[in-house]
Prior knowledge:
The protein is α+β, with helices and mostly antiparallel strands and 453 residues long. It has three domains: 11-217, 3-Layer(aba) Sandwich (Rossmann fold), CATH 3.40.50; 250-328, Chorismate Mutase Domain, subunit A, CATH 1.20.59.20; 337-445, no CATH class. Helix content is 38%, strand content 19%. The chain has 15 helices and 20 strands. It has helices at residues 11-14, 17-22, 25-28, 40-54, 74-87, 105-118, 132-144, 149-152, 175-185, 201-216, 220-249, 259-263, 267-281, 290-301, 393-399; strands at residues 32-35, 61-67, 92-96, 125-127, 158-161, 164-167, 256-258, 310-313, 316-321, 324-328, 337-340, 345-346, 353-360, 371-375, 382-383, 391-392, 412-415, 418-422, 426-427, 438-445. It has a six-stranded mixed β-sheet, sandwiched between helices. β1 (32-35), α4 and β2 form a beta-alpha-beta unit. α7 (132-144) packs across α11 (220-249) and α11 (220-249) crosses α13 (267-281).
Amino acid sequence: MAPSRAEPLPSLLHDPRRLLQAHPLLATAPALVVGYSGGLDSTVLLHLMHQLYRQGLLADLRALHVHHGLQNEADAWAEHCRETCASLALPFACVRLPPGLGAAEAVARQARYRAFADHLPSGGVLLQAHHRQDQMETVLFRLLRGCGVKGLAGIPQTRPFAGGHLLRPLLTLAREALEDYAGAQGLTWVEDPSNAGSHYSRNFLRNDVVPLLRGRWPGIEAQVALTAAHCAESAALLEEIAASDAAQAVGPHAGMLRIDALAKLSPARRANLLRWWWREQDADAPLLGPVQLRSIEQEVLAAATDATPRLRLGENMLCRYRGYLYRVTPLPALHDATLVVGETLQLPVPFGTLRWQRTPGRGLRLRPGEVLALRFRRVGESIKPVGRPRKSLKKLLQEHGVEPWLRDCVPLLYRDETLLAVADFALAEQVCVQPDEVGLQPLWDRPQLHCGA
């Protein structure tokens, strides 16, 4: 294929060593993995990296092809990639995505990135071949979806990823420059016929909208890239403000925010903090949008002081309790079981373990090896702690600051139908040892459950 124009190649393509100056990660990473689809863009990227690798300037280079199985030609593309890497003496891996994922863009993207994450060595760098036209399409696509400045910042050139980094070293280059380079080097690549259609939204932008815009404004790609850079700067500033506000608002655990600190912020600043905090707890969680933020304000923050509202946000919940907002992840179901006195019992993740401690003058009068029943809250349970009046289980857990959504998870120890212990919160007086005896105390290690003392 001949070069598409006579303009000189950008310096990054004319001398690939300039990529090392622009992106020091390339030279310092223990391993580089090129996301290699076999198309023009990734073919150019692989060729550039191979030149640096052949000169001994890269520690390790390999290619990974993700086989989506959505096109009839998919097997041929994978074979083309394998043969290309074999000709370059580069390690190559092909990951076939499971069938049934469908052709939805978001679903395919998530599956593809999971495959990349699974195959990236620790501390390695995943290289992707996005270029300036991809950046423009992304910004336009997000603009049409009503995204804020973080979305309009477009594709980041680098970001942390799967214990290493993701880097897009060609992001500032025009696609025409990649075509010229590929033609000059005699490279071969595959063409995805689906790119010619406009069924997918991104293809519609690429094939129908962008050419129209470029005809009127020839420099639009550079201008959109500049807008994306401005938005990225604004987004970074908003993150700095959110991190500063979080220093005053985060509770004893990162998954908690103080209601009183939130109340002191302006609505815009409060929304900014909530968006930042939500993603800090789970980088893969969807951004909180205007509808979700309005629900948080009206249904959670505006609730009565003693109320305990819960708001479902995607797979998670936002809960309010005793002056704090909590981000609550789904908890697995718990089932009754048995435990042996004196032996440590591993509960399902994330509920920790139950173990035993011999204590003079305290604890239960039990025999090591005795079998007890492990149950969880149903209705009407009560216990008489040592030296105190009988208490309902609900009151006892409130007293110990156990959040409402965790109360069904507290382990209860029974002998037959007699409640002996509520985790390590309370022991039944009638089975406790005397001051001159040695007892066995149950201890509940619950590292991921935020229960107050």
